[in-house]
Design a protein that fits this description.
By secondary structure, the protein is mostly helical. The chain has two domains: 104 residues, Rna Polymerase Sigma Factor, Chain: A (Orthogonal Bundle), CATH 1.10.1740; 90 residues, Winged helix-like DNA-binding domain superfamily/Winged helix DNA-binding domain (Arc Repressor Mutant, subunit A, Orthogonal Bundle), CATH 1.10.10. The chain has eight helices and no strands. Helix 1 crosses helix 2 and helix 2 crosses helix 5. About 20% of the residues have low confidence.
Length: 211
């Protein structure tokens, strides 16, 4: 997947080097954010490389369109670049700020498409606080998950999207959504149960159709 680092003027962005995050190495995110707020383009480029994949997965699962998700993710970082100078630490991680920008963009996109702002998210995690990446074992594609998760509540979809697509921990999701860790775990569990029921019904319907 091609990823062009966004820029705010005609100067070229440098490559990112250096804390392991989303496939990219970033030494000290706090320092990078501080430098980026002061106009350091190299620092923003590193933040971009560190977080692009997780923002892309989040957006892609939300809207169910991979091509559109890539363009939207680029725009998320363009918006972040334009606003980074005014970023302030408010007890939440930098990722929470990025996901809020992505969430708002998804809502705007769905409104333009005359769909519910809540979105069609994707998800399906094993039990409890398990690693979200284990979902890959279910071999469920984005389109199928998007259809299935329309049965979930908005809160359930947001929790699962942040956990699976965004790869965030229970603690991080709780901070972003302003809920307790217990509430996030409960939402995740109820969402997984509901998804499994929907997917099981649809699989059975396919079998009956083919038989």
């Amino acid at each position: 997947m091609h990823r062009a680092i966004p820029h705010g003027d005609t100067r070229a962005w440098g490559g990112a080097q250096g804390l392991a995050y989303g496939g990219c190495q970033v030494h000290d995110e706090g320092d990078l954010v501080r430098r980026a707020t002061q106009g350091d383009q190299q620092a923003f480029a590193q933040l971009y490389e560190a977080h692009f994949d997780r923002i892309y997965r989040y957006v892609s699962l939300k809207i169910g369109d991979k091509a559109e998700a890539e363009d939207m993710t680029q725009q998320v970082f363009v918006n972040a670049l334009h606003s980074i100078s005014s970023f302030k630490w408010q007890g939440k991680p930098f990722t929470a700020w990025l996901f809020r920008i992505a969430h708002n963009q998804v809502v705007d996109y769905l409104r333009r498409k005359k769909k519910q702002p809540a979105t069609l998210l994707n998800e399906s995690l094993p039990n409890g606080d398990s690693n979200p990446q284990a979902i890959v074992e279910l071999s469920l594609d984005i389109e199928r998950l998007s259809r299935a998760t329309r049965r979930l509540t908005e809160a359930q979809r947001e929790v699962i999207s942040l956990r699976f697509a965004g790869g965030l921990s229970i603690i991080e999701v709780a901070r972003i959504m302003g809920k307790s860790q217990g509430a996030i775990k409960a939402l995740q569990h109820s969402a997984i149960v509901a998804l499994r029921k929907v997917l099981l019904v649809r699989d059975n319907e396919k079998v009956e159709t083919l038989s």
